[in-house]
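ok, trying the design again with the full structure, not the truncated one.
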């Protein structure tokens, strides 16, 4: 914030200096005009050349307009420069804030599962538990390990996109089976806490990178679960026609403010402060989703759910199938 205050103080100083400089130039030319008129009157006391004063005044007005014209152009360029600099400052501050949120969220996202895994392992080490309790602790530790792995995968994919080193492995695969597999896995992992309803058309094929498309589906489902209210319900739909393949992931959660929709696909972007936010995440999920969809020549749109919540719609052209 301090550099921005210094910048605006310099802007005010420059503008004041510019106004003062313009005033001095005009005032100086006015003094020169007055001196020329006085000298002319001394040389011509009988006023034999009455047009001389008019000539001096025309010269003064010409110089005055030149100063004002050049000053106006300079002022316009200065204002444009100030606006551009302000925009640059704003982007840098926004990026710095997003990166700070990302670091805070990553610290929390890694710390929580690691602490849970450590606690489970210590429990297994110090206590003799029956087989059922051991399986519960081991299963929970595995889930937390998968969560850490997903965080690392997202960070790596984002870094690959930033450096244009994303390895796109194109092959024809059954998208229907892929979506069903992910839904089944999430149902097993989450149990009865989450209801995932599916309406998946059979044998829908897509040409693309299977692992990255799986990441898209998983990120959207996880995002829908994350921002849903109590009694979580997520709907996943997949259909195809002669022109396109459409994937829909809908939730009945808190929804997304229309003003924030253009921002949600930005890297690190998350609503609010990381200190007070209750939902988990790093701000990379939707950024990665959009990048992967674009890599497959697809489009992603965000819409309001008819009842409540948000719908993410992804459309792939049939040439990708």
């Amino acid at each position: 914030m301090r550099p921005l205050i210094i910048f605006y103080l310099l802007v005010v100083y420059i503008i004041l200096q510019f106004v003062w400089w313009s005033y001095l130039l005009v005032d100086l030319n006015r003094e020169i005009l007055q001196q020329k008129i006085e000298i002319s009157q001394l040389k011509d006391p009988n006023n034999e050349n009455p047009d001389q004063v008019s000539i001096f005044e025309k010269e003064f007005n010409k110089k005055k307009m030149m100063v004002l014209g050049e000053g106006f152009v300079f002022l316009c360029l200065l204002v444009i420069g100030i606006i551009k600099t302000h925009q640059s400052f704003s982007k840098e501050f926004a990026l710095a804030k997003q990166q700070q949120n990302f670091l805070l969220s990553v610290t929390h996202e890694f710390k929580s599962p690691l602490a849970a895994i450590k606690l489970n392992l210590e429990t297994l080490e110090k206590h003799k538990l029956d087989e059922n309790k051991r399986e519960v602790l081991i299963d929970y530790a595995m889930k937390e390990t998968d969560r850490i792995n997903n965080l690392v995968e997202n960070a790596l994919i984002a870094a690959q996109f930033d450096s244009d080193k994303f390895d796109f492995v194109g092959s024809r695969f059954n998208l229907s089976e892929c979506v069903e597999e992910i839904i089944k896995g999430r149902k097993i992992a989450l149990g009865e806490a989450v209801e995932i309803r599916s309406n998946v058309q059979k044998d829908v094929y897509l040409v693309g990178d299977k692992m990255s498309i799986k990441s898209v589906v998983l990120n959207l489902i996880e995002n829908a679960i994350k921002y849903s209210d109590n009694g979580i319900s997520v709907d996943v739909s997949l259909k195809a026609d002669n022109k396109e393949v459409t994937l829909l992931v809908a939730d009945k959660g808190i929804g997304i403010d229309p003003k924030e929709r253009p921002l949600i696909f930005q890297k690190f972007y998350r609503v609010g402060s990381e200190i007070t936010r209750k939902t988990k995440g790093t701000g990379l999920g939707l950024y990665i989703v959009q990048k992967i969809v674009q890599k497959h020549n697809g489009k992603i749109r965000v819409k309001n759910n008819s009842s409540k919540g948000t719908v993410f719609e992804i459309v792939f052209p049939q040439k990708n199938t």
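Keeping the full-length input from now on. The longest strand covers residues 232-240.
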